[in-house]
Amino acid sequence: MVAVGVLAGLSVLSLLTYGYLSWDSLGLGPGETEATRTGLGAGAPSSQPHIIFILADDQGFRDVGYHGSEIRTPTLDKLAAEGVKLENYYVQPMCTPSRSQFITGKYQIHTGLQHSIIRPTQPNCLPLDNVTLPQKLKEVGYSTHMVGKWHLGFYRRECMPTQRGFDTFFGSLLGSGDYYTHFKCDSPGICGYDLYENDTAAWDHDNGIYSTQMYTQKVQQILASHNPRKPIFLYIAYQAVHSPLQAPGKYFEHYRSINNINRRRYAAMLACLDEAINNVTLALKKYGYYENSIIIYSSDNGGQPMAGGSNWPLRGSKGTYWEGGIRAVGFVHSPLLRNKGSVCKELVHITDWFPTLITLAEGQIDEDIQLDGYDIWETISEGRRSPRVDILHNIDPIYTKAKNGSWAAGYGIWNTAIQSAIRVNHWKLLTGNPGYSDWVPPQAFSNVGPNRWHNERVSWSAGKTVWLFNITADPYERVDLSARYPDVVKQLLRRLSQFNKTAVPVRYPPKDPRSNPKLNGGVWGPWFKEDEKKKKSDKSKGANKQKKNKNKKKAN
C-alpha cells in the first residue's frame, strides 16, 4: 500500500522517469512540444546545437543489442540505428582516465593522470591549469549542466564540477557507491555520504531512489526549466552499470533464465539504463530540444566479467590495454547528421569530442592549448576519412614493471618493462604488463553445460613483454606478429619514445588522513584548505624571522 501511495503522488515528470507515460497521455498533438505549447521557445532559435553527452560506466563491448547481446537494449539499438554507430571507437581502460580525456581533449601523459584512478582519499584532481570542455562552451553562451559521476577529484573546492565550468552539478564525486543510499566505504571505518547538489551534500535527496532513475529525473527537470532557444550542454554520467550490482526488482523479469547471478543483476541494471535513456530522449522531444540536438553515447571503458560485463569476442577486460578494455560501445544520434543510419569504421578516440564539440558550438580553440584530439564531425556526419592515424593508449611509468622487460627487448629504443600501448594505423603495440588477457565467451556466464572459458585462457610464453597485432585484420588479438615484423615493432617503439618526451610527471600522491568523512560531517568532500596552508607557512616564516632576530642579538 505504501508503494501505491508513493506512485500516486508522483508528478508527471517523475512518472516519465519510470516510463509509464506516452506522449498521447500527456495531451501533446502531432509535432507539438511542451515548449511550443507553453511559449518557452520564445525568441530567435540558436544555430548552436544542444549537446547531450551520455557516458555509461563499465558497459561491455558486447552488452548492447546490436552487438548480439542477450540483454535487451531497444532504446540504444534504435538511437544507434537511426544515427551513426562508431565501430572503431576507443576510450581508456578505467574511469578517471576516460573522463579526464573527454573533458580536456588531452592524453593522460599530458595531465599527469597516467596511473590508475583518483582515489577518494588522495589529495589529487584534474590539474587546475587544464581548460575544460564546459568552460569553453560557456564562453560561447552555453548553459552547462552535469548530472552523475564526476570522479576527477575533489580534495579542494577548486576541483569541484561547478569550479570547472558547470553551471550546476547533481551527482557523486567518487568512482562508485550504493545506488540507493549513496554511501561509500573506501576502507573499513572510512565511509561517507556521496551525493551532491552543486557544492553541498544533497541530504534532501536521500530518499532511497535508485540513482539511474534519480539522475534521469534531474535531467528532465533541467530540460523543463531551460529555454530551448538557448544552447545547452548536458553531461549525463550514469553510475550504471558499475558495481555494486543493484537494480530495482521489476527489471529482473526478462532475465530470470540467466543462471549467473552477477550477469543477471548486470542485465537488470542495463535494462533500467536503457529505459532511462529513452526517457531522456522523450524529454528532449517534449521540451523542444530534439530537432537541434546532438546525442552522443559512450561507455567509459570495457566491461568487467567478474561483475557481469561481457566484451566478447574481444580480448581482456576493464583495466587492461587489450581491446576488451579500451574498445567501447559508442554512437551519435542527431537530426543534424548527414549520413543517418550508417556505420563509421574510422579511428575515433574519446579525446576527439573536445575539439569536435567546441567547433560545432562555434567556439574557438586557443592556439596555446596542445590538444591530442581531432575534430571528427565530418568523419561521423559525412563519412569522410578520419584525421586521426594513431592513438596513444597510455604510458604508465609506475605500473608494476614486467619482470622480463628490458631495453634490449625494446631494441634499445624502449624499456619493455614499462606498461604502454599504442595504435598506429592498422598496427597496435603493447609492452610491459598489459593486464588480464583472457577471452571470456558468453558460455562462461552459464552454470550449465561445458565451460569454454578455460579453453580461452592464455598460456604466457616465458619472458614475453612485447606484442604486435594488426587490429584491422585481427581485432580479437589472437595472432601476435611481433617476431614476424620487427621493423614495425621498432617504428612503433620510436613513436612511443617520442610521445614519452612530452609527458608530464605522474600525479599520484599518498592518501591524506584529513580526507576521512568523519572529519567532514560524514560526507565525502573537499578537505584541503588553502588558507590553513598559508597560515602555517606564514607562522613558520614568522617563527624563522624571530629565530634570526634572536641569533642576531646573541651575536651582537
UniProtKB/TrEMBL annotation:
It holds the Pfam family Sulfatase. Residues 528-541 have a biased composition (Basic and acidic residues). GO terms for molecular function: metal ion binding; sulfuric ester hydrolase activity. Residues 49-361 form the Sulfatase N-terminal domain. Residues 505-556 are annotated as: Disordered. InterPro entries: Alkaline_phosphatase_core_sf (IPR017850), ARSB (IPR047115), Sulfatase_CS (IPR024607), Sulfatase_N (IPR000917). Residues 542-556 have a biased composition (Basic residues). CDD domains: 4-S. Keywords: Calcium, Glycoprotein, Hydrolase, Metal-binding. It comes from the Eukaryota. Its cofactor is Ca(2+). SUPFAM superfamilies: Alkaline phosphatase-like. Belongs to the sulfatase family. This is ARSJ Arylsulfatase. The lineage of its organism: Eukaryota, Metazoa, Chordata, Craniata, Vertebrata.
